[in-house]
Amino acid sequence: MAPLEEFGRIREWTAGRHSDTSLAAAGVKLGIGDDTAVVSGTSGLEWLLAVDTMVEGVHFRPETMEPEDIGYKALAANISDIAAMGGIPKHALVAISIPPQWDTSLLKRIFDGLYECAERYGVIVVGGDTTSAPESLVISVTIVGQVEAGKAIYRNGARPGHFIFLTGPTGLSAGGLHGMLQSEEHRRLVISPPPKRLISAHRRPNPSVKAGRLLITNGWGASLNDVSDGVSSEAWEIAEASDVKLVLHEASLPLAGELVGYAGQCNIPPLDWVLYGGEDYVLIGTAERKYEASMRETFRAEGIPLFIIGEVEAGSPGVDLEYGSGKRKPLEKRGYNHFPKG
């Protein structure tokens, strides 16, 4: 039997473990399968729960990330999951496993970055755990957020006729990481370093909390996901959860000038980073067409980018890319995957 990819493994490990009755009795509104779990709260609110883990050599390398960046990004990735539900991040628990080569001064710098992110987004660190590790540093953050009861935006709300939007350009983080790795591996050669914007996008991502809140408070968001594993992968998740086809327009995908220029230097099509790069932490979602003008006006007034990049159609779940004069091709369900098939 062929190996299962990441989400296939999660389904195999977890599907059917709890009955619908036990989930309902525990107040679970939404369990495994979206950016966060949603659990009943009080005073007209629901709890949002999520956890993310960063492993040295898999999610970061000391050659490309300062210790402060590691801590900042560990929390930012979790905050982005709350943003993807339209919620407000509130509390965090931090668990860290420390190998011998990470001394006390480096660890303090990691927590300096983590608390910098916490202060920026109003998150309070309320506990955690510390253990030793034999070789690689591991940092895991559990986050708790809140959202108005019944208002969380799930992945399964896309419907035919909706438009598809992005709340910022993508591919910047992937381009920054590529450039830093190339500079490290070929440091004796004359290679242009990546633009500062690309490096910053990889090291210090900005979760789209404000954009998510605008979607909630105005009742615009029908489906939503954060771009952690790449536009193609996240669009596929919405398509499968909603049982629809998403059509992305190549001409409408935002291309940052620094990304296009640097991709050209690296002889890489910029669309590869835009569609299949990850860790941009902007939001991708769908909304009813009647809201388009209001969304554009409000996002512009708030200084938040908004790009309309396609539409939703009826059909078998999947993602198509429209290019040229109305030509189409299916997009691979490809992005970052810890357990690729094959």
UniProtKB/TrEMBL annotation:
Short name of one Pfam family: AIRS_C
GO biological process: thiamine biosynthetic process; thiamine diphosphate biosynthetic process
Binding site for Mg(2+) 4: D35, D81
EC number: 2.7.4.16
GO MF annotation list: ATP binding; magnesium ion binding; thiamine-phosphate kinase activity
Keyword Kinase: yes
Annotated ranges, domain PurM-like N-terminal: 33-147
Binding site for Mg(2+) 3: D35, D81, D226
Domain named PurM-like C-terminal: residues: 159-316
Associated pathway: Cofactor biosynthesis; thiamine diphosphate biosynthesis; thiamine diphosphate from thiamine phosphate: step 1/1
Sorted UniProt keywords: ATP-binding, Kinase, Magnesium, Metal-binding, Nucleotide-binding, Thiamine biosynthesis, Transferase
Binding site for Mg(2+) 2: D52, D81
NCBIfam families in UniProt: thiL
Function: Catalyzes the ATP-dependent phosphorylation of thiamine-monophosphate (TMP) to form thiamine-pyrophosphate (TPP), the active form of vitamin B1.
Additional remarks: Reaction mechanism of ThiL seems to utilize a direct, inline transfer of the gamma-phosphate of ATP to TMP rather than a phosphorylated enzyme intermediate.
Protein name: Thiamine-monophosphate kinase
Organism lineage string: Bacteria, Bacillati, Bacillota, Bacilli, Bacillales
